[in-house]
Design brief:
about 300 residues; single chain; 10 strands; six-stranded mixed sheet; two-stranded antiparallel sheet; alpha/beta
C-alpha cells in the first residue's frame, strides 16, 4: 500500500479527503490499529476445531488415531486458535445507505469492512464479502490469498447504493454457503429490513457462529436536525412527503428510540454483538473499541 499521513480523527469528512478506499484503509489501520497485531478472534480457547492431514513437522501427539482407524490416513487435530478464521462481512448496499456527505453511509461502512478485512488478511485469515440490497449484489467467498484483498477492495469500490433492504434474504444466502463456525459481521441501517432478519441472525449465533451487528445510522437520521419545511424523499422507493420537522420531531425521536431499543434487545437476547455507529464517528476509534471489547467477540 501507498504511504499516507496519519490522521487523528478519521471521521467521514476526513476520510473523504483521502482519494480512494485503499488510502482510507491504510490511514485507519496505520493510524489507530498499529498496536493491535493480534487477530480479533484469537482468544484463549483451545476448543477443537477441525482435522488436517498430517504433514512432516506436525506434533505427532495430536494425531487422531480414531480417524486413522476409520480412514487409514493420518490426521492431526487443530484447535480454535490455530485455524484460519473465516469472516463473512454482510454489507447493506440498499438505497438508504447512500445518504450522507461528503461520505455516504455505504462508503463509511465500506471503510470499516475493508479495514477489518485488511487486518484479517494480513494474518492469513479469510475474509468474505456479501453485499446485499433486495438481493445479493456481490459475493466473494473466503480466501486467504494475497490477491483476494485486492479483489475485496475493488468489489467494495464498485458498489453503488440502490434498491430496498432485504437482510433476511442475504442471511438465507449466507446460511447456504457458510461452513464451519465462522465470524459474521453485518453493517446495515436496518431500514425496511425483513422482519425476520434479526431472528435469522440469532439462529446463526445459536449454531455457533460469532455474530456482530454494526447498526449504521447517520446523525441526521438520529436527531432530525432540520428547521424549515422540508420535502423528504425515500431512498428505497418513490415515496415523498412535505413535512415541518419541528412539528414531528418529538414523535420521530420517540419512534426512533423504540426502533433502536427493539434492535438492541433482540441482539442482547440472541447474544449478538451490537454496535451503533454513525459516519461522524472516527472509524479508527470505532474499530479500536470493537477490537478491544472481548477481542471483537461482543
Amino acid at each position: 500500500m501507498v504511504t499516507t499521513p496519519r490522521h487523528r480523527h478519521l471521521d467521514g469528512e476526513a476520510l473523504a479527503k483521502l482519494g480512494n478506499l485503499q488510502l482510507r484503509v491504510q490511514a485507519v489501520v496505520e493510524g489507530s490499529l498499529a498496536g493491535l497485531h493480534r487477530s480479533p478472534h484469537h482468544g484463549s480457547s483451545i476448543e477443537f476445531a477441525e482435522h488436517k492431514e498430517y504433514a512432516p513437522g506436525d506434533d505427532i501427539r495430536r494425531i487422531d488415531w480414531k480417524a486413522y482407524a476409520r480412514f487409514d490416513r493420518y490426521y492431526v487435530r487443530q484447535f480454535e486458535d490455530e485455524t484460519e478464521l473465516r469472516a463473512y462481512f454482510l454489507l447493506d448496499a440498499s438505497g438508504s445507505m447512500g445518504y450522507g456527505a461528503p461520505l455516504s453511509k455505504l462508503e463509511y461502512g465500506s471503510v470499516l469492512v475493508a479495514s477489518l478485512a485488511y487486518l484479517l488478511a494480513r494474518q492469513r485469515d479469510q475474509p468474505s464479502l456479501l453485499a446485499f440490497a433486495e438481493d445479493v449484489r456481490c459475493y466473494l467467498p473466503p480466501r486467504g490469498r494475497t490477491a483476494h484483498l485486492s479483489h475485496f477492495l475493488t468489489a467494495l469500490e464498485e458498489l453503488a447504493p440502490s434498491g430496498r433492504t432485504d437482510l433476511g434474504r442475504a442471511i438465507h444466502y449466507l446460511t447456504d454457503v457458510i461452513g464451519r463456525r465462522s465470524f459474521v459481521l453485518v453493517v446495515s441501517d436496518l431500514f425496511d429490513a425483513h422482519p425476520d432478519a434479526l431472528r435469522l441472525l440469532r439462529q446463526l449465533r445459536a449454531r455457533g457462529h460469532r455474530v456482530v451487528l454494526f447498526h449504521l445510522l447517520h446523525e441526521d437520521e438520529l436527531g432530525l436536525p432540520f428547521g424549515d419545511l422540508t420535502l423528504f424523499e425515500a431512498m428505497e422507493d418513490t415515496r415523498a412527503v412535505l413535512v415541518d420537522p419541528g412539528g414531528i420531531r418529538k414523535l420521530y425521536l420517540k419512534e426512533m428510540e423504540r426502533f433502536l431499543e427493539r434492535t438492541r434487545e433482540a441482539c442482547r437476547q440472541g447474544e449478538i454483538g451490537y454496535h451503533q455507529i454513525s459516519p461522524g464517528q472516527p472509524v479508527d476509534q470505532v474499530l479500536l473499541r470493537f477490537l478491544s471489547s472481548k477481542r471483537g467477540r461482543r
